[in-house]
Amino acid sequence: MKTTVNGCTMAYEDIGSGPAVLLVHGFPLCRRMWRHQAKALVEAGYRVVLPDLRGFGESEASAGPFSMSVFADDLVGLMDRLGIEKAAIAGMSMGGYILLDLLERHFSRVAAAGFVFTRAGADDEAGKVRRTQAAHAVQETGPQDLIESFSRLLFAPQTATRAPELVAEVKGWMAAVPRRSLAGAQLGMRDRKDYSERLGAFDLPALVVLGERDGIVSAQEAEAMARALPRATLCRIAGGGHMANLEQPETFNACLLAFLHKALPGRPEASQRPLQQRD
Ligand code: MLT
Q: Is the pLDDT of residue 267 over 90?
């Protein structure tokens, strides 16, 4: 489905019924990364909303840079459009950076927060320089280097041999992202705020999920986040990479569902509706 939010055409799915759960993908990915979670959550009695962030998946590629606030405002605009006052929101990696911004400015719209393979800190100076260089390189010479380096970092070391088709599929998603979106999001992440000292203000049910073989976010960063959030549960995925929700969907789903069942009261009996679009 598509709708226009803040002047940009956004693609999304809105499936199932029950308390709303919004799942926000990471960089440079798309909503398809949540397919195993969407199915499990709908079957468990939740309404699941899966947006493609502006510039990614099937959403329109507006001009960057894309600040985390621009993405967060798009998500709130989509919730308005769908009549969702409050949702549990889970963000993976860059999706988590966006969720932090959204919590700061739209706290009342979040029933529970899921931080998936993400961190609260900003980039250090060397990291900012790397983001600027990556943005320029993508624009000038194309995305191939960025795609190759990300596809090595996104998965646990064993995934390339155990599930080469998964790696190839995700590379295909990355290759489809327009250059200006890749560059725009790199610059937006470069300039994101540091929330490490502000997590204490986010007093709501929170989940922090870490992959023990994550090549992008360290266990220390995720653990620090779980310690600093007032009401966080930490879930570790042994052997999991930065995309452990796709590598080990059953383990990941068990974590997410246990959290949601506690955090979101009022869930109806498990929905009988299969994966279908809202009318
Ligand atoms: C992501 O997975 O969204 C990105 O790797 C985050 C980042 O580059 O910091």
A: no
